[in-house]
Amino acid sequence: MEQNDVTLAAIRKGKNTMETAFLRAILENDGVVPEGYSVQGLTPELLELLGSTDMGRRETSLDVLSGWIYRGPGVYYSADEMRSIGQQMAHNLTIGIGEHETDSVFRRAFSALILGEIISADNRQAFLDEAQVHTWLEQGMVYMRSEQDRRGWVAGKGWAHGIAHASDLLSVLSRSRYAGEAELEGILETIRAKVSEPADQAYLYEEDDRLVSAVMSVLLRDVLDSDFLTTWLDRLAQPPGQVPWNKVLGLTETNEALVFARFNMVTFLRSLYFQLLLGNNPHPSFATRTPAVRDALLPAILAALRVMDRWAYAR
């Protein structure tokens, strides 16, 4: 502890408050801020840094805020303060939405993670009401549907991961006590529509696994019946009104956006199959177990992949 105190004193002397080293020292000091500072005083700048193009400051700000929020209301933040932060993060999901390969993606993507931390805190210790969670759930689904910046890693700026972080947010929302059958169906439909849509690039940075992790969180609730899930898989294998996946590569004029979408769909279904088969590495607060629909879904996923296949699988 003495070493950390010396480090904090040295860091803050004559330096910008939000240097990465200053933030890391707070993390190493178990979230305790140095003398002369307060959580409430530092929070506005930390929230602003979620949109920074400096990876170190952005991600360390995320870690500090996440650590404070994780303790739940009454420790670093009051319940009202946590609700207020959540409202700001939900608004941030709309800033620059629809833009393609601009820096606005960092604010949206990292705000999604902080909003997820607040909902996760409520999942452990209730302080949010149903209307608030439903509002944030709708905003989270709109964000997933509307995010057009599919970059994972951005050279010189680090992780953007808008799609992955939107998936993480939906995963946490699916665990809420306020997420019933209609809400869980909405989450799966949102993910289906996102994976199915024509894309400007393939998902290369484990977005498929993060999307499927959100699906697994829904399935582990054991709320949705096999009829809905079978229909959902059928719509994944052949999106209504779209060129069949097994015809996409044979188009006279190759449609690159559909080629990317087909790739994203294949990797998504394969990830879904293997997470169901081998198990999912869930959030620590969610017990490791098998969805009740597992045995029915595994052959249905194989059937969906066969529908999409052009020639590779034996008949």
Q: Stretches where pLDDT falls below 50 for ≥5 residues? A: 1-15
Q: Identify the overall geometry.
A: globular
- Give the tally of β-strands: 2
- Secondary-structure element pattern, one letter each: HHHHHHHEEHHHHHHH
- As for the CATH topology, it is Leucine-rich Repeat Variant
The number of helical runs is 14
CATH hierarchy: architecture = Alpha Horseshoe
Largest sheet: 2 strands, antiparallel
Q: Mind telling me the C-alpha Rg?
A: 21 Å
Strand order of the largest sheet: 1-2
- Average of the residue pLDDT scores: 91
Oligomer: single chain
Describe this structure in words.
By secondary structure, this protein is mainly α. It has one domain (2-223): Leucine-rich Repeat Variant (Alpha Horseshoe), CATH 1.25.10. Helices cover 62% and strands 1% of the residues. The chain is built from 14 helices and 2 strands. The protein has helices at 2-12, 20-28, 39-49, 55-70, 79-92, 104-124, 130-146, 162-174, 181-196, 207-219, 226-237, 245-248, 256-278, 294-308; strands spanning 153-154, 158-159. A hairpin with a 3-residue loop joins strand 1 (153-154) and strand 2 (158-159). The longest helix is centred in the last third of the chain and has 23 residues, at 256-278. It starts with a helix and ends in a 7-residue tail after the last helix.
Give the helices and strands, then pairings.
Layout: H1 2-12, H2 20-28, H3 39-49, H4 55-70, H5 79-92, H6 104-124, H7 130-146, E1 153-154, E2 158-159, H8 162-174, H9 181-196, H10 207-219, H11 226-237, H12 245-248, H13 256-278, H14 294-308
Antiparallel strand pairs: 1-2
Helix pairs in contact: 1-2, 2-4, 3-4, 4-6, 5-6, 6-8, 7-8, 7-9, 8-10, 9-11, 10-13, 11-14, 13-14
